[in-house]
Structure formats: C-alpha cells, structure tokens
Design brief:
Helix 4 packs parallel to helix 6. The strands form six sheets. The chain has a six-stranded mixed beta sheet. The chain has 361 residues and is an alpha+beta fold. The protein is 31% helix and 28% strand. The termini are far apart. Strand 19, helix 8 and strand 20 form a beta-alpha-beta unit. The chain contains nine helices and 20 strands.
Amino acid sequence: MSTTRSRRLGVGVWALVVALVALVALTFIPTPYVIQRPGPVFDTLGTAKGADGEKVPLIEVDGAQTFPTGGTLDLTTVQVVGNRERTPSWAELAVAWVDPARAVVPIDVVFPEGVTSEQRDKQNAELMVNSQHEATAAALTELGYDVGAKVEVVETIKDSPADGVLEAGDIIVAIDGQKVSSAKVLREEVQKSEGKTVELTVQRDGTEKQVSLTPEKQDVNGTTTWLIGISLTTTYDFPIDVTIQLDNVGGPSAGMMFALGIIDTLTPGELNGGKNVAGTGTIEADGTVGPIGGIRQKLYGARDAGAKIFLAPESNCDEVVGHVPDGLTVYSTATLEDSMHILDVVSKDGDTSKLPTCKAS
C-alpha cells in the first residue's frame, strides 16, 4: 500500500471517529426545542377514567332530561415530548422534523423562562376548569337557559384607573347603562370609549353604586388598547348541574367540544347524525370560538381515532391549509352556532359545498 493511500485511509478513519464522537456528544447536549405530537382523543359523548381509575361519563347532567346520543364528538389533545429538565435529543428532533404529525417547537413557547413544569401544569388545570364553566354557560345559553352570569373583579393594578376606585369582589353590573353579561362585553365597551370617561354600575356588599373611570391608552406593536387596570372572573348560577369529568388534561382548547357534547346530551336526536366528528377550539359564554395551539397534531390525532369530520377554529385556518391528513374533512367555525349549523348539514347528508372550509389567506 502506498504512503499516500495509507495517509488518506488514516485521515478517513479519524474523520469517521470525530464524526461518531460528535454524534455521541450531541445526544448529551441539551436542545432548545420540544416536540409536539398527537395526544389522546376523548369522546365527549362517551366515558373517561375518573380519579379512581373507573370509567365515568365524561359529561353528566342532573336536573334536566337527557337523551341518547350516537357517533362521537371527540375532543383532541397534544402531547409534549420534553421539558426544561429533559429536552429531546437531536436524533429525536431529526425524526420529528420529517414527520407531518409532529412539530418541533422552541422550548420557550411551551415552557416560558422562569415557569416550572409544576406551575405550567397548574395553569393548564385552571384553564381547563374555566373552559368547562364557559362551555356549560355557552351550551345552556344556546338552549335558552339563564345562566346568571356575574362579572367580578379579582384585583386592581396599582396606579391604574381602577386603583382606589374598584375593589376585589366588586360585581360589575353595567357600563354606561349597558348590562355587563360577560368580561368580553366590558372589554368591548371600554375599547369603544377611546379614552373617554366611563360610568360603571357596581354591586359591592349587596349595594349598588356608580363609579367613574377614565381608561388609559396602551400602544403595543402599533395597536392601541384602552385599559382600566383590573383582572376579572365570571361566575355563573347554572339552573341545572353539568359535571365534566376528565382528569390529566389541561388547557382551554376543549371548550367548544364540551359545549357541543352538552347540547347533544340535552336535546333529542343525534347532533352529529351518528357520525364520527372531532374538533377543537376555545369557547366563551357568548359562543365565540377561539384559536388553539397544536392544530396540525390534533388533525392527525382525530384522523387516527377514526373521525371523518373536523371542526377547526376559523382563526387557525392558516395553520390548517395544506396540512389536512387524507380521509379527514375540515370545516372552519367562529361560533358555537356555526358549529351546530355544520353538524346539522352533515348529519342530514345535506349540501356540504356551501359550508365554510379553511382557505389560504
């Protein structure tokens, strides 16, 4: 063997050794990403495991007549692989990058700096509880019930317009004479004021009083917002008892599907026509459907669970276009009423060509 050839072989061997060492080293170097993949799918018309491991109805109603259901109204979830304590390896990331059902996401998006996994889980649990309340309010309101909504001040921000004027526990009854039935109504009216003084009717310790506030202007990224400096919660006095039993799932994105499940349980016939339907979306008491995260993973999770129809928030459509798995038809929705109309057409095998679908913007 010539000296030149031996030298080349030696260089090649060393290059391979260096590459292998680098590859091994990469498996131990923390990565700044986590992976999102399809999570479990739960039928809101079916059962789920309770805290004791026994199966219980996912939605249970007491105080009103209920009716048989058919098919599925599946809520979809996303699982996160990795956290700040243990991030995925570069090899795991490489596999996820080429898998359309998975997404590689910067870790700061899912686990913000300074927020522990325990704190994140607690926040998501609180969001889940709130979504169940909002879903119940939206469903019962759609069915004509009075849900007794009360918008309550949780706290005021120091040196804000509300500081020293409003107190924790105040119930905001009206703004400029208009009834406040939700936090959304209050926010909208404050924005309409464009900085002009607003008159609030407040219930404090059982007595109503009038207070005046002048909203402050805040500009963020060229968008003007008017603020009065309070955090709010909405409480309800539901005329019937609706219990949603779903453990170990957090976040607000199941709200719309909870609402549809409640409506189907409380009305004759099958809202979905006995078909397998899945979906996602936050819900507000007035029926507004909002955006969620992980929409692409949820599409694949729904398809793999047997759904043929998927209801996606209109505000997530840009993420849906071009990423719908084969065998799944996706319709866009902005309100609970939209979702019910879509299901009505689909359940009757009607003309679906006029139903809203996600289109590229």
